[in-house]
Amino acid sequence: MARDPIQPPPPDPSAPHGAPAGGPTEEDTRPFLDDPPGLGWVPDGLPGFERCTLGLDTDEQGQNLVTVVRPRTDAARDPARRPILSVHGWSDYFYNAPLAHAFEAAGYAFHAVDLRHYGRSLRTGQTPGWTDDLARYDADLEAAFETIAQDHPLPPILMGHSTGGLIAALWADRNPGRLAALVLNSPWLEMQGSAGVRLLAKSIVGPVSAMKPYAMLTLPRIDHYWRTLSDQAEGEWDLHPLWRPPHAFEVPAAWLSAVLSGHRAVAGRLDVTVPILVLVSARGHRGTSYAEAMLTSDIVLDPDAMARRSLRLGDRVTVHRLPDALHDVFASPASVREAAGAATLTWLGAYAPPSASEAESGAPDDGAG
Fold this sequence. Notes:
Elements: E1 2-3, H1 26-29, E2 41-43, E3 49-59, E4 62-71, E5 83-87, H2 97-105, E6 109-114, H3 137-149, E7 157-161, H4 163-174, E8 181-185, H5 195-211, E9 216-217, H6 224-229, E10 251-252, H7 253-267, E11 276-281, H8 303-310, E12 317-322, H9 334-351, H10 356-362
Parallel strand pairs: 5-6, 5-7, 7-8, 8-11, 11-12
Antiparallel strand pairs: 1-9, 2-3, 3-4, 4-6, 9-10
Helix pairs in contact: 4-7, 5-7
Protein name: Lysophospholipase, alpha-beta hydrolase superfamily
Pfam families: Hydrolase_4
InterPro entries: AB_hydrolase_fold (IPR029058), Carboxylesterase_BioH (IPR050228), Hydrolase_4 (IPR022742)
């Protein structure tokens, strides 16, 4: 079930990597960034964006960092705009420029975060995705919100995808009154599988995590989801080979134990006081062999389970199911993600409009923000 702890793998020269048009940039050809905290906003490898690296605590693997990413536009600094902060999922990072542009065009100030040990925040010698407690990400989010608030005083919208959705929901529960709204994109709120499978996972992961927290769990290595996303396969996204590898990060026992602890908290019911929008695919698909149906369904989590479990997050939950959506709804084919964006903006227009003047003129008086 587990093997010895490992450090991040060296670059794999055989790993596919679609460089942006015009050839690879410096960041495309080196495995990790090395920005020290304190540089402020600097140009990012994602064209038209900039990043700010923030220092956190230090542990046995070195200093932890969190990186905020935003468009390099005047709108991104407009204090009249309501900010959005987007949190990625497991084995992931921010790369979705069209998502940022869509929210900016609608009047919001879009930001994304690469959490500690992920993407732009991952450093040589650190275990990718490592944490032993999801509450540790509170520091990441606090640092990001503090930086965002320097330009944007309005209460923010927090978005989260998959594991990032679980992290966002738990943070919102622990921090009432801080947000205007919560948007969850296929949030991982429950271990997939039967009750017996969930019980078995808990009974195995807990003891292994306690004895060897860095031990890597032996799980199937399947690249089907990566194939639906990457422009090197059937998808359309240029994915960094180390930040979003084809077979995903290897899974530390302590990380999965932390996720299961978060699931137990959700099962016991949270009390998120702001309006919540949950976006999930209309259908899921399971299979050990790649199939065309995987291009139009969630092949990572069970959409039905997510929809049911999301009702335990708070009293004002809207569930929107999208035909043909992938696990990452906003990384689905263009027509699907555009429908998801339109639905999200319509919902936000009612509960957390992009400016204070719009909020005063038309939003429901339901305590949001």
